[in-house]
Design a protein that fits this description.
about 675 residues; alpha+beta; Beta-galactosidase, Chain A, domain 5; TIM Barrel; Immunoglobulin-like; 3 domains; seven-stranded antiparallel β-sheet; 14 helices; 33 strands; about 30% strand; globular
């Protein structure tokens, strides 16, 4: 008995087949099939031969491979179940299939947005205790030669890794309970020509990724949470899945459109994304109201629109060894509370934001002394950044955190929280992420005008699950513009620019100790959600002039930048990163060409732009340029503007000058 279902977008079709009411296989996810296509015939056309060294029947490769499938594939669940179909609900954009085995129930839920062409896949399992469950597994065509995943580290996130397909399983496990710096839960799969598949697991917990080629040539990808063997209903997903025939550009376009439509949350969507000032790398824990008032005045003069008071305002927080969990204002530093300072910030024309790290506790805190039983894991475990993790599955913990945070938000005029997470969990526990989501949802309901930034020592918790509840993500703790240039480029397909925080850091970077020019630091930050984070008293007159100029440009252009289409521009030079943003109506664009190290070629290749219309465009340089004696030619864009059609700019391109290491060249185009 064969049952078939299909879901369609304008360019693709996903077909599932269930044999004898067992879990279905995805037999086709590729080009759009005609509406009247026989799915039974399609299934029959894919029936395989059998040869020596095989079982007499080819094993199934289902959305959650089980032991009963008698397959050499990686299991999608570590519980032995014989699931059979019990109900079906479907319409043109959604399919829900329910399966049962005794008290165990498995629910497969697949939805598609025909406009963004993104599929959202979920699997739910209840009635058994599982340590692992994959989101619905999906097949990969044989035309793919490799896949691209992401490694990295703190202050070095989003390092692309190419892995060739070979018989066997490539498995990566993140056991530290959060998304992690080391393994962003996304994969890009080139499939020959310009076809690319993208998948992202939108969960803020430890996960397992499996990319497997079976001996018979079939391939599958699995993404799912590390569950920790805890009973109760568990969900694997959402897994966001899309494919494009337009390369990475098409993937970026689809994912950004889906994010903006279904994921992004803004307290006031009509309000432009503000220019941030964050005081962390200016003062760290040393909070002096007089000094901070001076910094706020300087920030406003440069164009800042939001002042964020970072770590150090509560308990007796003079360093990172104490007071996490004690969310009361430190009267030693703030004898009059925060009200006078907030009034100063607002009088300067800025709103006020504040830092919390709710999920953590220091042993040196009033909270820990009162409730050591609120800690996740044993009390003899190693500390991380001098702190332990609170067990968020305990309702009393979340009630306490809500009460303390709510009290601060109620007492003061605060429109922003920087929500940090600086320690890994002692073991995988998906309940932490679920409880944290519920706490954030509760606070947002009580304070709907407050926006939240997700930070986890920078990029330790970046995923669409946390971003469904937060309006900004701190991409990395590195403010080194050269490192940011690479990180932002690699993260671009997954994160729209308007939600990706990027700050102009100190002249001497605090994480790399490189000294970089303001022109580079400012324009790299202007590629994303712009801000600055330094002791503003260090600025020279020339640096002040540059930062003010770039801030004003970003504010003048952010509206179309944050509704536009981002394109990564390929370059021959591995030390060069180029990208552009084109306005939704294709009347404006900006191009950033960053040179990290010494150029590898004598001269750079022409930049062939993307996404433009048929209009003529006036193109001019808007960044300062000084190539010194290395750039002696008469490159037009060094001194003047050019006018070309969008067709010419894409087919022929533009020649940039020779760039020196640690420099940037920025162009602006406008239809005429």
């Amino acid at each position: 008995m064969i049952k078939c279902w299909r879901l369609d977008t304008a360019t693709s079709t996903l077909v599932l087949v269930s044999e004898n009411d067992r879990l279905p296989q995805i037999i086709h996810w590729g080009g759009r099939l005609p509406d009247g296509e026989s799915l039974i015939a399609l299934w029959r056309a894919g029936m395989s031969d059998v040869t020596g060294g095989m079982l007499d029947e080819r094993p199934q490769l289902t959305v959650c491979p089980m032991r009963e499938d008698v397959t050499p594939a990686a299991m999608g669940c570590d519980v032995d179940l014989r699931l059979r179909l019990t109900s079906v609900q479907e319409d043109a954009q959604r399919l829900e299939l329910r399966f049962a085995d005794g008290d165990a129930e498995y629910v497969l839920d697949i939805a598609v947005d025909p406009e963004t062409e993104v599929f959202t896949l979920n699997a739910r399992l209840r009635g058994v205790e599982a340590g692992w469950l994959t989101a619905p597994a999906f097949p990969v065509p044989p035309s793919s030669e490799h896949f691209v995943t992401y490694g990295g580290k703190w202050i070095g996130e989003f390092q692309e890794k190419q892995v060739a397909w070979t018989t066997g399983a490539y498995t990566r496990e993140v056991r530290d309970g959060r998304t992690s710096h080391e393994a962003f839960p996304g994969v890009l799969i080139p499939c020959g020509g310009d076809e690319v598949i993208a998948a992202h697991l939108g969960m803020s917990c430890g996960h397992r990724f499996v990319a497997e080629q079976l001996p018979d040539g079939r391939r599958q990808v699995q993404f799912g949470p590390m569950l920790g063997g805890i009973a109760g209903e568990v969900t694997a997903g959402p897994l966001y899945l899309t494919r494009s025939q337009e390369g990475i550009d098409g993937i970026t376009k689809r994912l950004h459109a889906h994010f903006r439509k279904h994921i992004m949350v803004l307290a006031d969507p009509s309000r432009p994304r503000p220019v941030h000032y964050n005081c962390w790398e200016a003062v760290y824990f040393d909070h002096d109201p007089k000094q901070l008032c001076d910094i706020a005045t300087r920030a406003a003069a440069l164009g800042a629109e939001r002042f964020v008071l970072d770590d150090g305002w509560f308990g007796r927080r003079d360093d990172d060894t104490t007071s996490l969990g004690d969310w009361v204002i430190d009267p030693r530093k703030w004898p009059d509370g925060l009200a006078p300072f907030i009034q100063h910030v607002q009088a300067a024309g800025m709103t006020f934001g504040i830092w919390f790290e709710p999920e953590m506790v220091n042993p040196a805190s009033d909270l820990y002394r009162a409730h050591p039983d609120w800690v996740l894991g044993g009390l003899d475990q190693p500390l991380g950044r001098n702190q332990l993790v609170l067990d968020m599955s305990k309702p009393e913990v979340c009630d306490y955190l809500f009460a303390r945070i709510d009290a601060v938000l109620t007492a003061y005029d605060i429109d922003y929280i920087k929500w940090d997470h600086n320690r890994v969990l002692p073991f995988p526990d998906h309940r932490q992420a679920s409880a944290n989501y519920a706490l954030i949802d509760r606070l947002r309901a009580a304070h709907p005008t407050v926006e939240i930034e997700s930070c986890s020592s920078g990029g330790g918790r970046i995923d669409w699950g946390i971003l469904q509840r937060t309006s900004r993500v701190w991409l990395s703790d590195s403010n080194d513009a050269l490192e940011r240039m690479r990180i932002q480029y690699m993260a671009a397909p997954w994160l729209p620019p308007e939600i990706t925080g990027s700050h102009v850091g100190p002249r001497e970077c605090h994480t790399s100790h490189r000294i970089l020019p303001m022109e580079l630091r400012a324009w790299v930050a202007a590629q994303r959600s712009f801000g600055f984070e330094m002791d503003l008293a260090e600025l020279t007159p020339d640096e002040t002039k540059t930062l003010t100029r770039v801030t004003a440009w970003w504010k003048d252009n952010r509206d179309w930048l944050h509704h536009g289409t981002l394109h990564r521009i390929p370059t021959r030079d591995p030390e060069q990163f180029a990208e552009m943003i084109v306005s939704a109506d294709r009347s404006r664009f900006a191009v950033w060409v960053g040179q990290r190290g010494a150029p590898v070629d004598v001269l750079p290749d022409r930049l062939r732009l993307s996404g433009l219309g048929d209009a003529n465009y006036k193109v001019r340089r808007i960044s300062a340029f000084d190539g010194g004696w290395l750039s002696r030619g008469e490159n037009a864009l060094k001194t003047t503007e050019i006018q070309l059609s969008g067709t010419a700019l894409m087919a022929f391109g533009v020649q940039t000058p020779v760039l020196t290491p640690a420099s940037i060249f920025v162009l602006e185009g406008e239809a005429v």
